[in-house]
Amino acid sequence: MADLAPVPAADPFPRQRVRLGREDDHELELAYYEVGFGHPIVFLHGNPTSSHLWRNVVPHVQQLGRCIAVDLIGMGESSRLPHPGPGSYSFGRHAQLLSHFLEQLEVTERVVLVGSEWGSALAFDWARRNPGAVRGIAFMEPVVQPVIWADVPEDTKRLYQQLRGPGGEQLSQQEDPVVEELLPASVLRGLAAETLDRYRQPYRDPADRWPTLEWTRQLPIDHAPPAVHDVLDAAGQWMAHSEVPKLFVDTSPAVPRSYRMRRVVRRWPALTEVTLPAGRLVAEDAPDELGRALADWIPTLA
């Protein structure tokens, strides 16, 4: 797909804000955009992207429900946490603020969740804690379970080990490798300069790079960190036994770290699978194909 042009960077959706309270005299807000009416369809991004990821996907389904695409805390146009540091942008904190956000928007029933990477993990966790509210879950390149270092591709293992080590903060602040290296490598057709700049924007100040760094440290590798290990294990067990309809968006060519993940999710009940020509960021490589897959699947839900 390297010969294909990057998808359009234009983002027509104005952002709104939801206030989640104050912390140390600092107002916490999550930014989001919303379009359409009806039952909620919630879009959750991963690391290091934002709601901008879904700009070319949402138009395909905005006639099917109330589409909501959110920026996680510290990402996109959402607030930064005061006094950030190791552990501040934990999976648990993201999950807590996401739950508060959905409560504020009265997203409480017949919810379709659409997640990319860590956004999938947040979707699984929210669904496990709110099983009666979920109508369906679509996911791509999901973080579904604890992993071991052997699962991490060699081309990213070195960088992950550095970021998770004692020099990770300095590396993140000096070079921003999650945005400058991992992000472009996740898109087979490349990113338009405007798109990459949009993803860079929240992290131009080195002090604001804690969210992207912490996501690399939240991935439970060899049982660390244990809290996230337990949450993902519980969410994976719930998905393995729940009859909630699921749409697994696979990619071709396959992302190496996905082989074990495929074996896990293909055993889940009520699963529909589609394969799209994309790298790790399906919404940047194949947004129209993804949008059409969602538009075909959502009307089948009860």
Question: Overview of this structure, please?
Answer:
The protein is of the alpha/beta class and 302 residues long. The protein has one domain: Rossmann fold (3-Layer(aba) Sandwich). Helices cover 36% and strands 18% of the residues. Strand 7 (246-252), helix 9 (258-265) and strand 8 form a beta-alpha-beta unit. Helix 2 packs across helix 8 and helix 3 crosses helix 4.
What would you call the shape? globular
- Quantity of strands, as a count: 8
Physical arrangement of strands within the biggest beta sheet: 1-2-4-3-5-6-7-8
**Radius of gyration from the CA trace?**
18 Å
CATH homologous superfamily - what is it?
Answer: Alpha/Beta hydrolase fold, catalytic domain
The number of distinct helices, counting runs of at least 4 residues, comes to 11
- Indicate the CATH topology: Rossmann fold
Mean pLDDT: 95
**From the structure provided, what is the oligomeric state, counting identical versus distinct chains?**
single chain
Instruction: Indicate the percent of residues in helices.
Output: 25-40%
- List the secondary-structure elements in sequence, H or E: EEEEHEHEHHHHHHEHEHH
End-to-end C-alpha gap: 36 Å
Give the domain tally: 1
Q: For this structure, what is the CATH class?
A: Alpha Beta
